[in-house]
Amino acid sequence: MFCPSKKKKYLCSRYETNNPYKPPRNPLMTYVSLPSDDTHRLSFYLAMEEYVARNLNYDDDLFFLWQVEPTVIFGRNQVIENEVNLPYCREHGIQFYRRKSGGGCVYADKSNVMMSYITRSDEVKHTFSRYMEMVCKMLQELGLPATSTENNDVLIDERKVSGNAFYHIPGHSIVHGTMLFDTDMEHMLNAITPPQTKLDKHGVESVRQRITLLKEHTDLSIEEFKRNAVEKLCNKELKLIDEDIRGIETIEQEYLDPKFIMHNS
What we know:
- The chain is built from nine helices and eleven strands.
- It is of the alpha/beta class.
- The protein has an eight-stranded mixed β-sheet with strand order 7-8-9-10-6-2-1-11, sandwiched between helices.
- Mean pLDDT is about 85; it is low at about 1-25.
């Protein structure tokens, strides 16, 4: 995986586990990287958030980027049949998983970027405020007129480019979201099943008018954007080891359990 600039210091040691909570001294974040560049299922990255929060989040705030093959991710309390077009997903090989945060249904693929932020703050408002401020500033430094909303979306020219959701585990808060660099619009519109009233009211063209793609606002490639994001948001790196991967894969089993995926059906 890509890393922060070599001019910046790397975090080489594991965190101590007995530190009492205090606000992070580091105004930036520590980037969490995997041992290889392999692409995993979306469920792996959700489990990675939990593992990192429970086992490694003892000092600086943590951050990592990830990408997945075509996948739909839906919220903790959503009924899958109401939110996911299951026949379409099965026909086109689109995976689907439930997350533990609330919020709506999201389509992701390799042409957009997913972001995860882990902090020891228990304050929801402060957590979102700090994270959204950092993301907007990173985009603004690229010359983009990025703003945030009360719904925790990031907008460029009043159109949504990023949506974010939150959940809390004891002592830690996790924010994860999308950065819509590009996407397969046909899959996005067909894999997710919006309420019929929404389709009737807005239609496909209106949906497209309410979102924007980052590639329309920058000459950077997706890989260049990812490197820039890490360099602007992080100044240390924490590289996971094989023991960590085994821990993540253990947690992942919950996300793969059909009872968890379908529990509100």
